């Protein structure tokens, strides 16, 4: 529940007959828009009675009571157990999880949903305090719409070692992607810089002035409407696989944002891109041993792949 600050004032003579939203703006220092929202949310009382609307007039001497909710910090980590997050491995240095679709890795200004760091806090995991407050311990990210295996640092030492490993590209990141059509050649490397899309700030695109981005792919299965690819990332840009496959004119099945066919998406029952982080390999930050963790396809991706395999 959100906490609210109650403020009570008697209406002065100078505001006799004034609209309630105008009076609130002057008395409480809120904007008229905010005042209207508080009235609509039934958070304003005049002499104990609910206000009929923002244009209701006030009488001098009336008691105006307003409950102003505390502003929520969009970057605050809210501890809550997230159904569907599986712990693949846990030790003193790292925790490896299987992230479900629809969960962000950490809070951000535009995200109001569940997060990996919120789940770990709710489940009692102590993770590294290195990094920005809302993404402490985070050494890699997966999109909200991408599922699969990822590692989070628990110790400060593990954080610095893994951060460097990702930066120096010594981590083996393997994804499976179901893409429309058949890439030609069947295996290859996409070396094309990626930058923020010039028209849509939520998208990325291959841009001449973008950041160096390299994706390796090979075809595992070729079907009538789509191909299942194994993808290895050399760099780790936001939306990298989705942008590169879209640039090849073979977007991930279901990835409407990057040009996928909505009819095919509906046919296979997908509401997100068919993209899954299947394997993660790296040197363990404490032992130095090479470790590898895997994740199987979630139900929605497995079903979509079955539909594609059965299509004639």
TrEMBL record:
<keyword id="KW-0456">Lyase</keyword>
<dbReference type="GO" id="GO:0140098">
    <property type="term" value="F:catalytic activity, acting on RNA"/>
</dbReference>
<dbReference type="Pfam" id="PF00849">
    <property type="entry name" value="PseudoU_synth_2"/>
</dbReference>
<dbReference type="GO" id="GO:0016829">
    <property type="term" value="F:lyase activity"/>
</dbReference>
<dbReference type="InterPro" id="IPR050188">
    <property type="entry name" value="RluA_PseudoU_synthase"/>
</dbReference>
<dbReference type="GO" id="GO:0003723">
    <property type="term" value="F:RNA binding"/>
</dbReference>
<dbReference type="InterPro" id="IPR036986">
    <property type="entry name" value="S4_RNA-bd_sf"/>
</dbReference>
<keyword id="KW-0413">Isomerase</keyword>
<feature type="active site">
    <location>
        <position position="143"/>
    </location>
</feature>
<comment type="function">
    <text>Responsible for synthesis of pseudouridine from uracil.</text>
</comment>
<dbReference type="GO" id="GO:0009982">
    <property type="term" value="F:pseudouridine synthase activity"/>
</dbReference>
<comment type="similarity">
    <text>Belongs to the pseudouridine synthase RluA family.</text>
</comment>
<keyword id="KW-0694">RNA-binding</keyword>
<dbReference type="InterPro" id="IPR006225">
    <property type="entry name" value="PsdUridine_synth_RluC/D"/>
</dbReference>
<feature type="domain" description="Pseudouridine synthase RsuA/RluA-like">
    <location>
        <begin position="94"/>
        <end position="247"/>
    </location>
</feature>
<dbReference type="GO" id="GO:0000455">
    <property type="term" value="P:enzyme-directed rRNA pseudouridine synthesis"/>
</dbReference>
<protein>
    <recommendedName>
        <fullName>Pseudouridine synthase</fullName>
        <ecNumber>5.4.99.-</ecNumber>
    </recommendedName>
</protein>
<dbReference type="InterPro" id="IPR006145">
    <property type="entry name" value="PsdUridine_synth_RsuA/RluA"/>
</dbReference>
<dbReference type="InterPro" id="IPR006224">
    <property type="entry name" value="PsdUridine_synth_RluA-like_CS"/>
</dbReference>
<dbReference type="InterPro" id="IPR020103">
    <property type="entry name" value="PsdUridine_synth_cat_dom_sf"/>
</dbReference>
């Amino acid at each position: 529940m959100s906490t609210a600050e109650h403020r009570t004032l008697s209406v002065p003579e100078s505001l006799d007959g004034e609209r309630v939203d105008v009076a609130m703006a002057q008395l409480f220092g809120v904007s008229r828009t905010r005042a209207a929202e508080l009235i609509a949310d039934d958070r304003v009382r005049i002499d104990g009675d609910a206000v009929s609307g923002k244009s209701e007039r006030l009488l001098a001497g009336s008691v105006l009571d307003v409950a102003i909710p505390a502003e929520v910090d969009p970057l605050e980590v809210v501890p809550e157990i997230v159904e569907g997050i599986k712990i693949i491995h846990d030790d003193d240095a790292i925790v490896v999880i299987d992230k479900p679709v629809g969960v962000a890795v950490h809070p951000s200004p535009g995200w109001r949903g569940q997060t990996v760091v919120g789940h770990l806090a709710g489940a009692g995991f102590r993770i590294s305090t290195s990094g920005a407050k809302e993404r402490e311990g985070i050494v890699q990210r997966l999109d909200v719409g991408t599922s699969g295996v990822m590692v989070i640092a628990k110790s400060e030492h593990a954080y610095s070692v893994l951060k460097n490993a990702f930066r120096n590209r010594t981590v083996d990141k393997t994804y499976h992607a179901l893409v429309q059509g058949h890439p030609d050649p069947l295996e290859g490397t996409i070396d094309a810089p990626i930058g923020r899309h010039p028209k849509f700030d939520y998208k990325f695109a291959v841009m001449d002035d973008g950041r160096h981005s390299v994706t390796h792919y090979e075809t595992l299965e070729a079907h009538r409407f789509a191909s299942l690819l194994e993808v290895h990332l050399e760099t780790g840009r936001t939306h990298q696989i989705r942008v590169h496959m879209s640039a090849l004119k073979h977007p991930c099945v279901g990835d409407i944002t990057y040009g996928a066919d909505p009819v095919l998406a509906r046919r296979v029952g997908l509401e997100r891109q068919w993209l899954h982080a299947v394997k993660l390999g790296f040197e363990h930050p404490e032992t130095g041993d090479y470790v590898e963790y895997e994740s199987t396809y979630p139900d929605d991706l497995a079903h979509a792949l079955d539909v594609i395999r059965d299509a004639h």
